[in-house]
Amino acid sequence: MPASRAPTLLERSKYVIYWRGEAKSGYTATFRHWEFVGALTSVMSARYAGTGAGAAEIENAAKAASFTNLFTLNPANPASADQVDMYNTALQVLVFGEGEGGVNVTDEDVFKATSRCSLIHHTYLWLGEGATYADLVRDSINSKVLRKAASNGETWRVRRYEFSFLNDTDNPRFGKDATRSVAKERKSLPKIWPVLELFKGAVDLKDPVIHLNLLEGLHECGPHPSKPEELKKVLALTLACGAKHMTISPRTRICKTTTPLCSISSHLLCNVAMVGSGPSQSILDPFAGSAATLLAAAMISPEVRTVGIDTGFGLDISRADIHRDFTTRGLAAPVLIQGDVLDSASRDDARSANCGAFDVIMTDPPYLIRESFTGEQGMGAPLLGLLKAMGEDFEQGKPLLKRGGSLVSFVPCTPGHHIDELLPKQHLQDFAGLQLQTKREQKINSSLSRWIVAFRAVR
Ligand SMILES: C[S@@+](CC[C@H](N)C(=O)[O-])C[C@H]1O[C@@H](n2cnc3c(N)ncnc32)[C@H](O)[C@@H]1O
Predict the structure, then answer these.
(1) From the alpha carbon of 285, which atom of ligand 1 is closest?
(2) CB-based pocket (< 6 A), ligand 1
(3) Which atom of ligand 1 is nearest to the CA of 292?
(4) Is 389 strand, coil or helix?
(5) How many structural domains compose the chain?
(6) Do residues 201 and 318 both lie within one domain?
(7) Is residue 281 part of a domain?
(8) For 333-376, how does the pLDDT look when each residue is reduced to its tens digit (9 = 90+)?
(9) Ligand 1 nearest-atom number relative to CA 257
């Protein structure tokens, strides 16, 4: 479904999220909920801006998401704990509790949040479930969401996807992806005819407005069924697909550097940093490189103002190429400052370009593997240097990050180190006016992890 076509179904709903598969275990799955809740909080903060709704209430409403697995791997399967986890969490039901102070999540919020998440394949609106087609029809037919979707005369299509099999090891995709058999679809659809005949619009197999999905092969928990017919079926309506992040993948960009951040990670940083949660936000990347983070921010929220600092601008990194990466996508080009972020003059230039402190700082600092760094050496050093500089600026009455703003950064970590040794000590966090919110590990390979760490400016 094109991201521009927001559905108009506005009632409290139940959703199904089909997450993007993991290239390798531990690479992205740990960030899925964090990314989604960050994106949802941003979308809701923008919607509630100026209404008097509190930031805490908005954040709590988004965080009140509860996820339940729709797969359970047959225990008879020989699989590692990682595989079981990867399989079982690939498709999840999502429901929200009642929010405080009248702050509630709407379908429109979930639609917008999904459209900016790099780790979501699709989000569906739940219509009903059943062990048999008859049960499924009984459960779905009175769904208000279904009735509303069916009655508006829009073009529609239904597809059947089978997610898993009793003998899962025979499935090369191992539950990460769905299979679609046209022959099985032809047999199944007549069995849900009472639901399909409600649709008044024309069938359009190519580009319909309404996508109905018959999801089969689901099994949440309890003893594993012995026959495929006993696996559960769910009827769902496509609400949105995840971010089209590949449109800014390094391969598509004009600016070529040796260490570009991939488009999934760039979106992830933006969502965790809650880009777009306020009007005309300002965003700084102090180690910007090819400006992947700023490009993702501008894609997600085109009204943001973006500023990058890098020692390489005008030397091995072409500013003109970066500008063209933005303008050819119809986005406002960032301000790019050539300099060392540890040098106060570079930070002064960044503040002048922005008329003051920033709402968000997000960055992928040098890992000191391929890039040089001017400050102290050691894996956490660039972040420590940045926090020291932020503290000095604050003492001089010129903060780099606004109170309440987010700082999100990658921190590399190799075996033999513990992430806590690499993170800024409490006294340095206090000096910089930051409070650590969350840290999570991403395994790059057997000898390198990188963590995403998120701080909030508390003064
Ligand atoms: C990991 S790369 C950033 C990659 C970037 N996210 C991208 O997508 O291209 C780190 C960058 O920090 C820059 N850098 C290193 N030391 C710096 C410093 N002291 N001040 C500013 N930039 C610095 C390097 O030139 C390099 O481009």
Answers:
(1) 6
(2) 257, 259-261, 287, 289-290, 292-293, 309-312, 340-342, 364-366, 371, 373-374
(3) 8
(4) helix
(5) 2
(6) no
(7) yes
(8) 999 999 999 999 999 999 999 999 999 999 999 987 667 778 77
(9) 9
Asked whether residue 317 is domain-assigned, the answer is yes
Domain annotation covers residue 9: no
The rounded Å distance from CA 288 to ligand 1 centre is 5
CA distance 402 to 356: 9
Kind of pairing, strands 232-241 and 120-130?
Answer: antiparallel
| Residue range(s) defining the domain that contains residue 134 | 15-241
Average pLDDT, the chain: 90
- With contact defined as beta carbons under 8 Å apart, do 233 and 162 qualify? no
Domain shared by 170 and 260, yes or no: no
Output the six-digit token pair for 321. Answer: 């190429």
Distance CA 454, CA 55 (A): 17
125: three-class secondary structure by DSSP = strand
In a domain, 7, yes or no: no
Sign of CA dihedral 394, 399, 404, 408: negative
- Given pLDDT bands bounded at 50, 70 and 90, which one contains residue 172? very low
The preferred substitution site among 245, 249, 254, 259 for testing ligand 1, maximizing ligand atoms within 8 Å of CB, is 259
Ligand 1 centroid to Cα of residue 286, in Å, is 8
Domain shared by 220 and 258, yes or no: no
* Residue 306, beta-bridge partner list: 283
* Ligand 1 centroid – CA 367 distance (Å): 9
pTM over 0.90: yes
| pLDDT value at residue 228 | 66
